[in-house]
Amino acid sequence: MSLKSYFELMAEYNQGMNESIYQAASKLSETDLAEDKGAFFGSIINTLNHILVGDTIWLQRFANHLENFPALDYVRVLETPKSLDTVLYSDFSELKEKRGEMDEIIKFFTKELTDNVISEPFSYKNTKGQAFIKNFGHVLQHFFNHQTHHRGQVSTLLYQHGIDIGVTDLLVNIPSVE
Fold first, then answer.
1. pLDDT tens digits, residue range 141-168?
2. Fewer Cβ close by (within 10 Å): the C or N end of the chain?
């Protein structure tokens, strides 16, 4: 398996899980979505916003990569969120639409990756302006792991409302080999 194919799999998994989460969350009222349930970002909608904030920040960093990935033109023009708890969209329908757009961008971006680029060092600055140089593949892995972590929180919050989103294991997305 190549690293590129791994990240393409993660992009497919990410999109499918986001579709499941948003479909499940759409069964709730705006009040239920906004209710502070004591989670790290409080509510379901705030946690979903945080995932999109994290994606935006990381994809904007990736857009500064020397490879100049064309798929990331979309994020180059977005305003950078001011903080990790920024609520980009308080309207669930709008948030869902933007999530779908971002997931398509992520899929296109992973198609532009190469195993060589994934294995190289990557320079970026965090939200406090601190500079880092880390392996690009490891940072990409963090990018996808961050989403999975917070979707897990959302699935728990949904379960508290009696909504089960079903199987969330990556395994169901891994193709069988013959």
1. 999 999 999 999 999 999 999 999 988 8
2. C
* Three-class secondary structure of residue 76 per DSSP: helix
Helices 44-63 and 92-112 pack at an angle, to 10 degrees, of: 30
Average pLDDT value over all residues in the chain: 95
Q: 133 φ, ψ to 5°?
A: -130, 115
Strand intervals (E) in 54-157: 121-125, 131-135
Joined together, the tokens standing for residue 65 give: 């990569």
CA-CA-CA-CA dihedral for 138, 21, 42, 33, to nearest 10: 160
pTM score, whole prediction = 0.94
35: tokens are 């209710």
Retrieve residue 66's tokens. Answer: 């020397």
**Length of the chain in residues, anyone?**
178
**What is the token pair recorded at 137?**
């593949």
How far is the C-alpha of 159 from the C-alpha of 166, rounded, in Å? 10
C-alpha to C-alpha distance for 51 and 152, rounded to whole angstroms:
11
Q: Whole-angstrom Cα distance, residue 57 to residue 127?
A: 8
φ/ψ (deg, to 5) at 35: -65, 130
Asked if 87 and 46 touch (Cβ cutoff 8 Å), the reply is yes
CA angle 163, 85, 133 (to 5 degrees): 110
Q: How many CA atoms lie within 13 A of 171 on its CB side?
A: 2
